[in-house]
């Protein structure tokens, strides 16, 4: 187990609870809740990975830790999509998400690029308004 093990385990437990709670609720579209799942959930999981990979020396996650952090991130991305009225089976890599986060510097943009939720408006659709 790496030094990130307890943090990853806590993230994984929280993500599973959030996903299960959201599955049992009748929820309307809630963009604020969606952003919260990103800021307090997926973003934290992605940043944990970034820290482990860029903190001066590479931290090797165990297979279980790696699977847990990736599942947690994907659980929260599913919650995010559901808050936008979209059912999604997220299966993204934490590395892919980390690269996007470092590029965009914004977890909301990262989630939108990964999931396609909400659908991006085209330039011509914006111009016709």
Model description:
The protein has 129 residues and is mainly α. It is 70% helix and 0% strand. α2 packs across α4. The chain starts with a helix and ends with a helix. The mean pLDDT is 91.
Shape: globular
Helical content class: 55-70%
- What's the pLDDT, averaged over the residues? 91
* Low-confidence parts: none
Question: How much strand content do the residues show?
Answer: under 5%
Sheet with most strands: none
Determine the number of helices (DSSP H or I, runs of at least 4 residues).
6
Topology pattern, helix = H, strand = E: HHHHHH
Radius of gyration: 15 Å
Count all strands and give the number: 0
Structural class: mainly alpha
Measured distance between first and last alpha carbons? 54 Å
Q: What features would you highlight for this structure?
A:
single chain; 129 residues; mainly alpha; 70% helix
In short:
The protein is mainly alpha-helical and 129 residues long.
Blueprint (SSEs and pairs):
Blueprint: H1 5-24, H2 31-54, H3 63-83, H4 94-104, H5 107-115, H6 123-127
Helix pairs in contact: 1-2, 1-3, 2-3, 2-4, 4-5
């Amino acid at each position: 187990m790496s030094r990130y093990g307890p943090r990853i385990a806590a993230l994984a437990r929280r993500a599973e609870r959030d996903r299960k709670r959201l599955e049992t609720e009748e929820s309307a579209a809630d963009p604020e809740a969606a952003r919260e799942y990103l800021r307090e959930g997926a973003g934290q999981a992605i940043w944990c990975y970034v820290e482990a990979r860029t903190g001066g020396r590479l931290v090797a996650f165990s297979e279980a830790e790696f699977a847990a952090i990736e599942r947690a991130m994907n659980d929260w991305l599913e919650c995010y999509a559901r808050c936008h009225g979209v059912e999604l089976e997220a299966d993204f890599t934490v590395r892919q998400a980390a690269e996007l986060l470092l590029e965009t510097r914004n977890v909301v943009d990262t989630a939108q690029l990964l999931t396609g939720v909400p659908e991006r408006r085209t330039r011509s659709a914006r111009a016709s308004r």
